[in-house]
Task: structure prediction
Amino acid sequence: MRRRRLGGPSSGGVGSSGGNMLRFYTDDAPGIKISPTVVLVLSLCFIGFVTALHVFGKLYRSKLVPPGAQ
Result:
């Protein structure tokens, strides 16, 4: 494991972390290559699906329970 260099303004700061983030979007990064837009769309679809299941579950349960039997 490499150790961080403690030094002046040339070795740290905001600029050094940007290079590490850009490595995730290069061809030599391991894993599946998915654009951020695809991740956003899939996340919104998942949230919508869970919300729909919640609403359908509430509607289904309200039809099973007779009125006034709670």
